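Question thread 4412

I'm putting together a teaching handout and wanted feedback from people who do this every day. The idea is simple: show students a protein as raw sequence, then show them the C-alpha cells that encode its fold, then repeat with a second protein so they can compare. Below is the first pair exactly as I plan to print it.
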Amino acid sequence: MTPPDVLATVPLAKAPPGGRRSGRSATLVVGCVLAGLIALLALVSLFWLPYSADDTSGGRLAGPGGGHLLGTDKLGRDLFTQVMTGSRIAVEAGLGSVLLAAAIGVTLGVLAAFAQGWLDDTLSAFLDILIAFPTLLLAMLIVAARSATLGSAILAIGLAQSAVVARLVRILVKRVLAQDYITAARTSGTSWPRTVLGHVLPNIWPTLVVNLALQFGLAVLAEAGLSYLGLGAPPPNASWGRMLQEAQATFTTAPAAALAPGVLLVLLVIGVNLIADGVRETLDPATRRRRT
C-alpha cells in the first residue's frame, strides 16, 4: 500500500469517453468462474453423491450412460462420484495448507523482520533450509511418524509452504519498517504491537493475498502428487491424484477415468492463478490507471 503523501502526488487518471470506469478485471472474473464451479462441486459433495464411495455395482470399465455420467473405473465404482469426492479433497488440501502456511509464515516472518544481528541471520538461514527441504521428503517423514492421511499431507504441504510465506513476509515487513510514517508512529509513542496491526499488516496484505492464492494452486498440485504416490488420503477417498494413478493402466480402454480428474485439476489451478493475477491487477494502482 502506498503511503498517503505519495498518493497525493499522483495525478488522477482521466475517465474514458463514456464516463464509466472498468473496475472489474476480466482475469479475475474468469478465474472466479473456473475455481467457483469446482468449489461448488466440492460443496455439493458434502451433502449429496450419486453413489457410495465403495459401491462397485456399476460393472468394470463401463462407458458413460446407464446411470453413470462418466462411466465406471476398473473396480466398478462411479467415476462422477469419485470426481466429486476428489474436488472436495483438493479444496480441503488447498485451504488447509494455505491457512497453516499463513499462520506459521506470517508469525515467523514478522519476528524475523524485527530481529537484528545474529538472530536475523539465524532465522534467515533457517527459512532457507526449510525452503530447500523437499516437500515429498517432508511428507514421507510425517507419514512415517503418523499415517498416510489427508491430514498428514496438509501438514507436510503447509509446513513446506510456511517457509516461502515467512521469507516473503520478512522482506515486505522490513520494507514497511523503513518508511517514514513508521518512524513517526513510533516517535508518537505507538507500541510495536499496535504498529504491526495498524500499519505493517495493512500495507503487506495485498501482496500476501496474491502469494497465498498462488500457494493454494501449488498445494493442490502437491496433494495430487502425494496421493499419486500413496501418501495422501487413503481409500475409499478418491483423490484426483489417486484416480490418475489407478487409471493409467486402463487409459486406452477407459480414458475418462484419467481425463476427468486431470482436466479438473488443471482447471482449478488455472482458475486460482487467474484469481491471483486478477487480485494483483485490482490492487495495483498503476494497473488500475492503465485499465481506466
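The second pair follows. I'd like the answer to focus on this one:
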Amino acid sequence: MVTVDRRTLLKAGVTASAAGALGMTTTGTATAAVPAPTIHPTSEWGARPAAGTIVVENHKPTYIVVHHAVDPPMNNDFSLARAFYVSRFIQNLHMDKNGWIDSGQQFTNSRGGYVTEGRHRSLEILRGGTQHVQGANVGGHNSEVIGIENEGLYSTVDVPQALWDSLVSLVAYIAHQYGIAPEFIKGHRDFNSTECPGQVLYNRLPELRTAVGRVLGVPVARAEAEWPLLKPGDTGRKVQLAQQFLRASGFGVPTDGVFGKSTKEAVAALSVQAGLPRDTCTAAKVTDETGFLGADVWPLIVPADRSAAAWRADLSRA
C-alpha cells in the first residue's frame, strides 16, 4: 500500500493557499462603497458561550467559502425566529457532536434571507477588516477561509431567492472589508472531498462571483479550474484516470472507469493513511461521503510531472 509522507501532505495542503496568495496580488480589489447588511449577532439569537478561546487570525482571510446546511431539515418557515432556531441548532450540533468550541462557520444565512453571526466575535472582527476569526468549517484551511452556512440542502433543488439575495449582499460586504477578489469565492468542495455546498448551489458560484463583482464595481477574472469531485457510482474518463493514479500509488483497483466498491475503499484508505480531516459537513447524514475523491485527495495521487494547476485544468477537460 502507498505511503504518504509529510512533504506530500504539505504540498497538497498549500496548493490552494499559494494560489490564493498569488491571486490577491494580481487581481483587482473592491473599489465601490458596499453597505453592511443586517447581521444579527450571537447575543440576539441566544448563542451559548464559546467553550474555549476564540482564535483571531492576525491577517485577512484569502477565501470566502460557501456551504449548505442539511440540519435542521429545511422547510418553508422563512421567519427571523426560524433563522435564530437554525443558528442555535447548528451551534449545538457543532459543539455537542463535533466537539468544537463554538459554531464552525463565521456566518449563517437562512432561507428567509436573514444573516446571523455564527462563531462568536466574527462580526466584530469583520467590521475591523484587518483580521478574521478562525472557524472550523474547512478541514486543513481554517486559518485562510471565512465560511458561510446556508440553511438547506442544495444537491438537487435551488436556493430560495431571499437566501440568494442575502448571500450576494453578505459575500460582497465580506469581500469589500477584506479586499477579496470575486474569483476567490469558493465552495467547500474546492478544499475537501464533499459535495457541499450541493451541486445546484455549487453550479451557481460563477453567477455569485459575477453578482458580487457587480456590487463591488470590479471586473471578475476567470477562476482557475478546480479539482473535480468523484463519487461512488460515477463513470467515465475522470474515474479511469483516478483509478490509474491509484494503481500507480499501490492500490489494486480496476481501471474500468467505474467508481465501484474497490475504488471507494482505496480512496477511503488513502484518506485515512494520509491523515486527511474527515469531512464533517452535515450533508453526510443524507449521503454517505466516505470515499469521495475531491480536492484534498487528487494532489496525493496525480503524477508529479506537472503543477497542480495544470492537472486541474487537464482533469476539467477529461
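Top answer:
Good format. For the second protein you could add a caption like this: Residues 84 and 296 are 33 Å apart (CA to CA). Confidence is low (pLDDT under 50) at residues 1-30.
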